[in-house]
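Batch manifest, entry 17 of 40.
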Amino acid sequence: MRTLLTFGLILAVATGFRYVPSEPPATGASSFTLVDAGRAAQADKVVVGEVGEPGPAKYTEDFTQARPLPPFVLPVYPPKALKAKAGRATVGVQVTVDAAGRVTDIGPSLLTFDTSGPFAADFLEAVQTAVRQWRFRPAETVQMELVQSGGFSYRRIVRTTATDTKLDLAFTFTASGGVETTK
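Output type: structure tokens
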């Protein structure tokens, strides 16, 4: 047990996983979690320059991750699991979002520990049915150029490009039949 706990702690630290508990909804309402593994922070300011450039790079790039846009269609607790009193279950998915903000693929997340048990397929189907209907503000890469003029320097936006990206979501189904989130 101690080995498993130590492994879980190392995995959580290595992936940047953060857990902040939240109160379960009293009305059985649904919500979600965006699981952030620090991808945006790692890719935040990429310096781009020409090969063999003797001085500092002329361009930098900033990456902004895709964000879901309301209204959110939230998953429904699977009726078979609710009838069997399956209890609390967490389902993590990795969502691929294209440059137009549409969901193009939904697969398992490696950042969330899935606890859906014998009804795993039912919980996953509920999440996929809901998330397929979502729209996102697409991820963007902003390329900026360093400009020096009149004794001062500033960064000018050269190009903004919408791009495909992947992000992780976690859904926690409560024993009362609702869905909650923690971030």
